[in-house]
Amino acid sequence: MSVTSFEANLKHRCSSCSLREICLPLGLDAEEMTKLDDLVKRRRRVFSGQSLFRAGDPLQALAAVRTGFFKIYEVSVSGQEQITGFPMSGELMGLDAISTGTHRGNAVALEDSEVCEIPFTRLEGLLSDLPRLQHQFHKLLSGAITTDHTLVMILGTMTAEFKVAAFLLNLSDRRGQRGEDPSEILLPMSREEIGNYLGLKLETVSRMFSKLRDQNLIETEGRKTFIRNRKALKALCQQGSVT
Amino acid sequence: MSVTSFEANLKHRCSSCSLREICLPLGLDAEEMTKLDDLVKRRRRVFSGQSLFRAGDPLQALAAVRTGFFKIYEVSVSGQEQITGFPMSGELMGLDAISTGTHRGNAVALEDSEVCEIPFTRLEGLLSDLPRLQHQFHKLLSGAITTDHTLVMILGTMTAEFKVAAFLLNLSDRRGQRGEDPSEILLPMSREEIGNYLGLKLETVSRMFSKLRDQNLIETEGRKTFIRNRKALKALCQQGSVT
DNA sequence: TCGTAGGCTTGACCCAGGACAAGGGCAGGC
DNA sequence: GCCTGCCCTTGTCCTGGGTCAAGCCTACGA
């Protein structure tokens, strides 16, 4: 649970990273990539359960997930927690802290993970020199808004069953983007965390998993989940909103 | 309902705009402001009910609300509409379109409004020259994420009564930031639109207004709403989440 | 090997908010 | 002025998902 984590000096380059088509370096040429590499020289390991940053921490660096899985949650004045995202490899964390310079969210690793830290002030300096990097950065910021809108839509219009179906499809699609098998999902988060994210109680999430299983849309082995009928699952999501 | 709207050539300058402390120009010096002014030479009137952009439109320009009120809504594959925001003066619209170059949202004026259009590609060019503008732009993008997270939190954790209370306080605060009386809110949106935004039905919204009125926290005259006991309303929001 | 704890499933019951319906108020058009 | 249509309010009933409770499964440590 401690903030500390071993800091690796492992030689890592954006140019050879398998995530370069998803992450910040997308669209850069070799020379530009080198400049970005100079910034991102710090790679850090965060063990399962550890937090990378907490609400109230000043924003020092954005962090790109290299391997693993995180949850980001915010705590309201009333003490209520709300998970706002489950960033996985290639996704940036901490973007919402730019507006105030202070993190509002808490980032906790859901499994042993590695992140690339990108000092924000230096990044902004580099953006001015590299228009393509600037544009990609804006796309990522904008994409974060889009992602949030999708969640708002799920929370605002969907019933429990469709929320869970949409959640599984989302994870599946993101796996697919990374070249992994999209029909086999090893969920690193608990039923309770899924429920928190989707505005449901853990019992309801569990029931919906069972319901989807009974319809032969998915198969479950504990947290390991297989998508058995992707088409039907998608169709379900599409017709499946509150009237 | 048409897209067209009369395009004004009214001389308008960021430097003399009352919203410059909220909007893009925040933090710029006189010379920088002039450069931004050169970009934002197009001011446009959008009448109540007209749309400024629609889902599927290519992103040409971001738009800052100068006067008036908009709603932004997205439509899911199943045809469900979800309002994702009610931008008011000084707020940027279209930021979520940067990631794909295409608008996902629909922007409709809720009252006769004026917007300043900012051609996006040219803006990005200018950002490279003006680090302060760049930083402010990033803060606005990041702020949009923060705003969305607040909505996610409201949708995910709050009961109907507290959702409505939080909604009113939010509008009130934003009026206050603009130097307007924060305790008098003229709602430009219908109960149904409020409900859509908050994940409630219009009847429920209406009932919650009545409930807050019965507790002497607010007073209502049709859409005109007065906050009578701000402190109690805030306290309500803070203790008021789902257990 | 067994004991224990955390997470998952399932059942029974309940309630906040949705669905449906009736009626009122107000603004715009003639 | 009056008609018409839209929006808002309020009532009644219903249901999806929350609450509470019991039991199971799996991982881990002694």
Q: How is this structure best summarized?
A:
Two copies of one chain form a homodimer. By secondary structure, chain A is an alpha+beta fold.
Note down, in words, how this protein is organized.
- Chain A has 243 residues and is an alpha+beta fold.
- Chain A has 2 domains: 7-132, Jelly Rolls (Sandwich), CATH 2.60.120.10; 158-239, Winged helix-like DNA-binding domain superfamily/Winged helix DNA-binding domain (Arc Repressor Mutant, subunit A, Orthogonal Bundle), CATH 1.10.10.
- In chain A, 40% of the residues lie in helices and 21% in strands.
- Chain A has helices spanning 30-39, 120-129, 131-157, 160-177, 191-198, 202-214, 230-239; strands at residues 7-8, 42-46, 51-53, 61-67, 70-75, 81-85, 92-93, 106-109, 113-119, 184-186, 218-221, 224-227.
- In chain A, strands 1-2-9-4-7 form a 5-stranded antiparallel β-sheet. A 4-stranded antiparallel β-sheet of chain A has the order 3-8-5-6. A 3-stranded antiparallel β-sheet of chain A has the order 10-12-11.
- In chain A, a hairpin with a 2-residue loop joins strand 11 (218-221) and strand 12.
- The longest helix of chain A has 27 residues, at 131-157.
- Chain A starts with 6 loop residues before the first strand and ends with a helix.
- At the A-B interface, helix 2, helix 3, helix 5 and helix 7 of A face helix 2, helix 3, helix 5 and helix 7 of B.
- The first copy, chain A, binds a DNA duplex (30 and 30 nucleotides) through helix 6.
